[in-house]
Amino acid sequence: MTSTSPESAAAAGETNDPIHIRRLDLSDHETGFVALLSQLSACPDLTASEFATRFAELAAQGDDHVILVAEDTTAREQRIRATGCLFVERKFLRGGGKVGHVEDVVVDAASRGRGLGLRIVRRLVEIARDAGCYKIILDCTPELRAYYAKCGFVEKGVQMAVYF
Amino acid sequence: MTSTSPESAAAAGETNDPIHIRRLDLSDHETGFVALLSQLSACPDLTASEFATRFAELAAQGDDHVILVAEDTTAREQRIRATGCLFVERKFLRGGGKVGHVEDVVVDAASRGRGLGLRIVRRLVEIARDAGCYKIILDCTPELRAYYAKCGFVEKGVQMAVYF
Asked: What is the pLDDT of residues B37-46, one digit of tens each?
């Protein structure tokens, strides 16, 4: 057998996949991460110092707070094309159980339709399961039900909010 | 004027309100807190050591993780009648904004209809606002929409979940 399946090629690191999914890094202040978030919500730019402070606060949570980013390694400039966040909530119920919360999933408008968001969300689901969470949850608009169903999510309730 | 309004009596600490709302304490392993949570979700009892470990993990989060309990000071035994949790999520968006998440609100079946849950949720909303959160959110069943509307919550989206 000389043929190579895509899986074995990927396992051997021989994949040509131009998308690299990794954890957010301090250097991502320069790769458009905050600008990408502005496609989801109001998001004024942060100074390098402000970014570093928040990064350090979240990094202190270790694997209880994971931000993944998808980087296009073929782009001339290092740019983030998609992101998603998982944080782990520790509870007293369920025998001291843990719940994964998915937040701030966004794909750059010019990079949609390539499955980047789904790849990130699926990875976050794996991380939550491997961390021993008994469930992973997220809130979304009704139009996104089918999108998240592709990652195994089912509708469970309603999200309520107070804005200050 | 010799009459005393309920407000001024409360301000002077002269209230006869038998309900004391306070933060969860390590000693609440003995006051029925875990048993109360079992009215909300599967909740096997925790040993004193397991309870202390989880308590310490959450206490390390300081004011970013607050569990309130309502204690009936007139009961023969010290018992928790209601509880609710708030944790603060720190984000990069909204200028490094913060979001309050309400979790695990439960009122003892024998103490419902006294407004204990509403008092706890309203207090959690105040804490989130005072902490500088730009919003506070929670997930609930559709039947509880009107309940949380009494605390100012409006429906914003759908909750999706994967159970492992």
From this structure: 999 999 999 9
